[in-house]
Amino acid sequence: MYRIVLVEDEPAAAENIHDIIRLYCPQFEIVAGGDNGAAGLALARVYQPDLLLTDIRMPVMDGLELIRALHEERPELKTMILSGYQDFDYARTALQCGAADYLLKPISPQAMVSALDRIIPLLNDAIGQRRLPLIRALLNKEPFDREALKKQFPAPGYTVAISRKNGLPGRFRRNMFAPIQYRVDGETIDMYGRDEMESLRLSSGEIRLSASVLETVNWLHQDIPGYTTTVVWHEAFPIEELPGIIDTLYAALDRRLVIGKTQLISVGARHTKHAVKHPPPGGEFKQRLAYYLKENKVDLVWSLLLDKLKKCETQGQTQLQVEEMVRSIFETLRREFECSAGDEGFEFMIDDAFFYAASYEELQESLLFILEKLLPDPRQRICKVDTPLFFELIRDYLNAHVKETINLQSLCKHFGISQTYMSRLFRKYTGLSFINYLTSLRIEKAKDYLLEKDTLIKDAAAMAGFTDQFYFSRVFRSVTGQSPSDYIRSRDRSIS
Question: Is the CATH code 1.20.120.80 the one for domain 390-495?
Fold first, then answer.
């Protein structure tokens, strides 16, 4: 519920607005009302609303003075002017003072509903700006304002879910709870987790364990092919307990994730289940590996590894179990062939293989690539693809088709290479994931379009490949530090 303070000195008009919001705007609630600007200022300080609705002409302090005073104290607070004076000067002054909208009385239900619908994205952004710093500090166990936490998260209980796309995060690239992108929807906050392949959803109340959780929690990764592992703590808890519960969820996620298998896992005092453990490679496996190496039967080494991976898949072994087995085998091979790759480079290759693999088939392809690096006579086909010239073709293609719908799957189909290998190329030549590179490219294109005179924000967004203007504005701000409107104003100032 979005909280409203209403300031209106005409009782009949105030009652009409109360009825409209109660009957037609269920997402909003009027928590307090006053009949002059001074009373409205005091109420706003006490109730800390998301939105203030105020008349213009009132005794003691008028509406324009009220919103000026409020925006000095709380710049993020959204305000809306309600007036029976059909005078453009009032509307212009109200907007200059920071009002988000201006409605003429008598107000119809349709006009109020439309105005509140328009303001919801602005309210969500403001709520996110207040809540996200507190959540980040709480999750990262940094100092934070406990009173502010209680005000921003007043619900008696919360529930959290973590959803991971594909493999576990690499040990070399962890960045805890950095909200590159976030969404606030009522009492729900979505943000990235340890990296861009992981989303975290915090909700008030309880999350019902169902297949729909996979669709809603994993909204950040809708265009990424592969499997999803979601762990849910659906027993309500006080917000202060979030860090410990997150630790428990991550332990369950790391312990239960199975390559290529979509899972919805319940975690809690009464719901936690443990993964089935499987023994590591036995003596017979090690003897066969040693024999193949001694006899230089490297082709059989690959067959042996494939056979072992097939058994892991059939038994449903977790990624950590499979990874332990693979690392042991490849460390043996590295020592046997005295591979020139350094320890860190070798670890990176193994790390990437599991991180990017969307299935066992893709994992096998990546491991074959590593094996070719270790063997005395590596194949050359893959090496020819891994060149700056080839990646420049990929860059050129993205620049030429940035306006179109592009995802990793379609890009790989065009160039005839796997998604795992394409992701590795972006990491190697840009230091970014495919998603982050494409987002950065689109924002740079949009900046160029915004520099052109008379280009509307929605048109610049569309030409840069964004279908939603509000989503474009959020991403633009997260990348550049300013809104598209502020960017245009700074452009105009530099020209003048």
Answer: no
